[in-house]
Design goal:
568 residues, 5-stranded mixed beta sheet, 6-stranded mixed beta sheet
Length: 568
């Protein structure tokens, strides 16, 4: 987290200076001493030709609070306490209504030779990894006639180098070249704007101005882009615009900061969420072996009769792609079918996939939950709540949530909550914790979507009060993922470190291809509604994934885009 040492308030017209100073975030309980091994949680990470260090102290440079509705004050910081030999790459920015908990990386040249580090451009091999900018371009400033103001500068890198972030000053003098370093371009990756931090329109400025966080353009298990923690800003910025700054790139194929197997188990023991299922839930989770042992059937195209599945899934077709040739279904007999639908809470466990993210500077611990059946949806239209009879039902429901751990410190950084056809990242300071530093995950009634807090969530055109309702509440039905889990994959550990279960290699559908004509069911509902809301409700149904209508069964974890990629 950042420890704010200084805080300078400025008072240009159109801005308020009364926003409270952000306070540091701390976990409910102290972090443990992680088991030793490799470079995890050591504060420094080798990226090949560069070594980076995560700064934990900063001082504020400039703050502002735009005076328009719903605006959030922001503060711009520069790192302090930089270790000898390391250099600043840019400044940091965050809203004032959030705890101080960002990160900035500082860098130095590593001892490894350029050949060992992976320099692929012979024209650059004799150049140093870091160089001072030539000079700076002033991107934007507040009107100086109103006192101490903010000035935003873009470092202009030498030929063959890229800037990593912006620099902010409270005076109009151009920063010294010594302020930051630029990075040789073969050690960088392209980045894109992510979230708007500050937006100032022409009411308070001669030119509109926006400040964005940014992230690597390509993210996933095999991507090597590394977020620096800096920000990007500009007066005219479109989503397609190519940025003048870059991210770092990890060229060390060993990913030395990733946790080893012992450290993974320690992380899960410390941070493993407690999952609350709704007190009125009818369709509970189960383990996959329980589902197979108690009657799940495998069907093959052209065959009318399904065959029982081995408890380990060893008779499932493995590999290939979802070609529609195979699918699973419940038993034909009503008693056996209803028994399987209800799941088995005693056997329930989470299935853990661990993978590198953001060039191995973060670890994603994806936790998958299996439910034999997904119950019907609840539709809300204004003040009317309608329990669906079939819409939303499907066999074989896979849901997940993901812990993102900072490999510099071992801190839980964020949790991703998967929600039907979408989801959301939630920062650690916005989570509920119990039993120390274990977050709470709420599983919605029937649909098993994951949420950070109890309550009723509406997914759809919210302004019209139309959407699918997800109800979440605490109950006695809990799965403690810190103890009830099974590791199913961690590819970066190498062959044989984790034995993947047979059923994970099944790339087809976990539910039948066609169950009923859901569109007819939807049209029945739409035709009963007032004319003015029909269009919105129809569009809502069109947003549902096809398995929600029963037209296709859901696929397993390894078929999902986020298995190899980022969550969003």
């Amino acid at each position: 987290m950042f420890n704010c040492e200084c805080f300078y308030w400025n008072r240009p017209i159109g801005f308020d200076y009364s926003s409270p100073e952000p306070q540091p975030f701390s976990f409910p309980s102290p972090l443990p001493k992680w088991p030793q091994g490799q470079g995890f949680a050591t504060g420094r990470i080798h990226l090949g030709e560069l070594e980076v260090f995560q700064v934990t102290e900063c001082e504020s440079v400039w703050s502002c609070m735009p005076l328009h509705e719903k605006a959030k004050g922001v503060t711009f910081y520069k790192p302090v306490g930089i270790p000898d030999g390391f250099y600043c790459l840019g400044h940091y920015c965050q809203p004032n209504d959030k705890p101080l908990r960002g990160f900035l990386l500082v860098a130095r040249e590593a001892a490894a030779s350029k050949t060992e580090a992976g320099c692929l451009d012979n024209s650059l091999i004799d150049l140093p990894a870091l160089r001072k900018p030539v000079d700076y371009s002033l991107i934007w400033s507040t009107d100086s006639q109103y006192g101490c103001c903010g000035y935003f500068w873009l470092p202009n890198p030498p030929v063959g180098y890229k800037a990593m972030g912006m620099v902010v000053t409270s005076t109009p003098e151009e920063p010294e070249p010594e302020e930051v370093r630029c990075v040789r371009k073969d050690l960088t990756a392209c980045c894109e704007t992510y979230e708007v931090i500050l937006s100032i329109d022409s009411t308070y400025s001669k030119f509109p101005f926006q400040v964005w966080s940014h992230r690597p353009c390509i993210r996933g298990m095999f991507a090597r882009g590394v977020s620096v923690g800096t920000f990007y800003c500009g007066t005219y910025l479109s989503s397609e615009e190519k940025l003048d700054i870059a991210c770092l790139k990890n060229l060390d194929p060993t990913l030395p900061a990733m946790p080893n197997l012992i450290q993974i188990h320690a992380l899960i023991k410390h941070y493993g969420p407690t999952v609350f299922f709704h007190p009125d839930e009818e369709y509970m989770p189960s383990s996959v072996p329980w589902y197979f042992k108690n009657g799940a059937l495998l069907y093959k195209e052209g065959k009318k009769k399904g065959v029982p599945i081995d408890c380990r899934g060893s008779n499932l077709p493995c590999g290939g792609e979802n070609d529609g040739a195979f699918w699973m279904d419940l038993p034909f007999e009503d008693e056996a079918k209803n028994y399987l639908k209800k799941g088995n809470f005693e056997s329930a466990e989470v299935y853990v996939h661990v993978k590198p993210m953001l060039g191995g500077t973060f670890t994603d611990i994806a936790m998958w939950v299996f439910c034999p059946f997904n119950g019907p949806a609840t539709l809300k239209i204004g003040l009317v709540t309608m329990e669906m009879t079939k819409i939303g039902e499907h066999v074989g429901d896979w849901e997940h949530f993901t812990l993102r751990v900072n490999n510099f410190s071992g801190e839980l950084w964020q949790v991703y909550f998967s929600q039907h056809w979408g989801g959301e990242w939630v920062d650690a300071f916005n989570l509920e914790f119990i039993e120390g530093n274990k977050p709470v995950v709420y599983s919605s009634k029937h649909g098993h979507a994951s949420y950070p807090h109890a309550g009723t969530y509406l997914r759809g055109p919210l302004k019209l009060g139309i959407g699918v309702m997800d109800k979440c509440a605490q109950s006695k039905f809990i799965v403690d993922s810190s103890t009830k889990y099974q590791m199913i994959a961690a590819e970066y550990l190498g062959d044989g470190a984790i034995i993947e279960p047979f059923w994970l290699q099944y790339m087809r559908e976990w539910g039948p291809t066609i169950v009923y004509s859901a569109r007819i069911e939807a049209d029945k509902i739409i035709n009963l509604l007032p004319f003015l809301v029909r269009f919105s409700v129809e569009n809502l149904f069109d947003l549902f994934p096809t398995e929600l209508y029963g037209e296709e069964g859901p696929t397993g974890p390894k078929e999902k885009d986020n298995w190899f990629g980022d969550e969003r």
